[in-house]
């Protein structure tokens, strides 16, 4: 039975303490910087995703998918807004993630200028899969965030939940506009796009992260490095958790909701109520 989840645009604001921007995670500076480094990709990445899907908006005739596309665009815009504020706090604390963000923005603008719209949509679909499986890891392993600053933790959980909620929208547009797995070219492009996008993503993340740890004074923090390894590739690490889901992408006929984790969406009511209480 097909799973049909209609995303909802939520205009939430999160109270982030600027003084904790570099040390908000329970395990300190090095883990905080890892997540802060991931955050720099979101504002420019979300704009790229919106443009890629919006290009094919007129192709979508199904009323439910039309609503889902509108909600997807709205959710991504909200993510970009909240992470811009977050990134600003990190930058003001002395870690130059706004300069790194500009490099990513230049790269994505070059992709938009020199590649066809179908390739841009394939890249969006691939990166949506990557963010969705990492979101699933964050939600499946709540101990990663336990004890961390409440505002930053709430923002990451909200983002993970909405990435889960809309994880199939760009994929469904791709199948409609470019083709499904019964078309060799469409299947090959979506498969290669995940390899390419993941490679480029980590080729940027690793040097950015190492630089950010260095300038924030964490290179000699052995305890911090052990925490990073534990949360990334340890027995309950997010990358180890996500590995099988990453590989599932290459199965012919794959769909994002083959990974049925909709039970996490039940957390929305509590998260929204808390955000509204904080904003009051």
Shape: globular
Which class do the helix and strand fractions yield?
mainly alpha
User: Low-confidence parts lasting 5 or more residues at pLDDT below 50?
Assistant: none
Which H/E pattern describes the elements? HHHHHHHHHHH
Overall mean pLDDT stands at 95
Helical proportion? 55-70%
Q: How many beta-strand runs?
A: 0
Radius of gyration from the alpha-carbon trace, in angstroms: 18 Å
Largest sheet: none
- Range of strand content: under 5%
- N- and C-termini, Cα separation: 41 Å
Supply the number of helical segments: 11
Question: In brief, what are we looking at here?
Answer:
This protein has 280 residues and is mainly α.
Task: Describe it.
- With 280 residues, this protein is an all-alpha fold.
- The chain has eleven helices and no strands.
- It has helices at residues 29-39, 42-54, 63-92, 97-114, 117-140, 150-165, 169-177, 184-215, 222-232, 238-248, 268-279.
- Helix 5 (117-140) packs across helix 6.
State the main characteristics.
single chain, 280 residues, mainly alpha, 11 helices, 0% strand, globular
List the helices and strands and how they pair.
Layout: H1 29-39, H2 42-54, H3 63-92, H4 97-114, H5 117-140, H6 150-165, H7 169-177, H8 184-215, H9 222-232, H10 238-248, H11 268-279
Helix pairs in contact: 1-8, 1-9, 2-3, 2-4, 2-5, 3-6, 3-7, 5-6, 5-7, 5-8, 5-10
